[in-house]
Amino acid sequence: MKILLIGEYSNVHNTLAKGLRELGHSVTVVSNGDFWKDYPRDIDVSRKPGKLGGIRLLCKVWRLLPSLRGFDIVQLINPMFLELRAERLFAVYRYLRKHNGRLVLCAFGMDYYWVDVCSTRMPLRYSDFNIGNKLRSNKEATEARRDWAGTAKERLNRLIAADCDGIVAGLYEYWVCYEPLFPSKTVFIPFPVQVQEYRERPADTASAEKVHLFIGISRNRSEYKGTDVMLAAAQALRSKYPDKVDLKIAEGVPFSQYVKMMSGADAILDQLYSYTPSMNPLEAMARGIICVGGGEPENYEILGERELHPIINVLPTYESCLEELERLVLHRDMIPSLRRQSVEYVAKHHDYRKVARKYEAFYAGLLADRAE
Questions:
Q1: Is residue 198 part of a domain?
Q2: pLDDT tens readout for residues 94-106
Q3: Which H or E element spans position 131?
Q4: Residue 111, SS3 per DSSP
Q5: Do 184 and 216 reside in the same domain of the chain?
Q6: Domains in the chain, number
């Protein structure tokens, strides 16, 4: 197959492309590298600051479009798949739709249906937008509602979701928002991760040193993602046990630097309001680092996993974070088993080659339906 992947989210498309190429497919990744994270891509469509940067990107996209024809599959990372205003993307979408085979929309993060369903129907006990039946009112959540509701972004998302041939949800949270609305075209496929080839498996005993905690802070999204709460809990624990806890913080750094900073950590703190581990904690787990974050039963159920439960699940409260982190520090004998399970879990469910085969089957089904 000839496959075009447009946009990037935490290395998903770049990693998926590697798996699909190993299966013999021709794959082109067009993206901005996910902003400062700067993930690899075949064609760069990053935008320079300011209005002039937008004009230059628009001109580049129009010059690029004739080369983005004739693909069997075009996959968009998000309704906002380029750094252009939504009003500009309607025409780009229609061009891609007209001149290619099947079109797939990814449900991987922020979009209209994620915002709207979590703010109205609330199928999740907690999310980026609700705690129980109450709306979260932090700045980022409020701005997201305003940004996606009753705007061109909403209209674009509605158009693509209704018109596209398939929708891929990468986490349970996104699947539960899309599947009830588009049951005939929505599938769940786990995120792809390049599982590290360890020369030695994680040690069978915990070291006598401190427990090394790592947390990555996204620019302007700390409160929204809950890293402010997790960081406060980790700092309190470090103050309480200065001889037993080490804490490393990464903020707004490229992925290559992020990975270097993460090296040597025992546990990563990520995504307080999530049911599931996203790409960054999965990358960490592949390296034998324990995830403290989203590990709700629904996460294991959608994967069909009954034995490997390596994630230290925390509820969206400071108290829960502090309690679970303290338990890890005071019961260091948990660490070796959880580290080994973390590697096994990612290898079983997220290995990029296994995930690529799932996408291959999904794409083949879409193309077969068209041929009938």
A1: no
A2: 999 999 999 999 9
A3: strand 130-131
A4: coil
A5: no
A6: 2
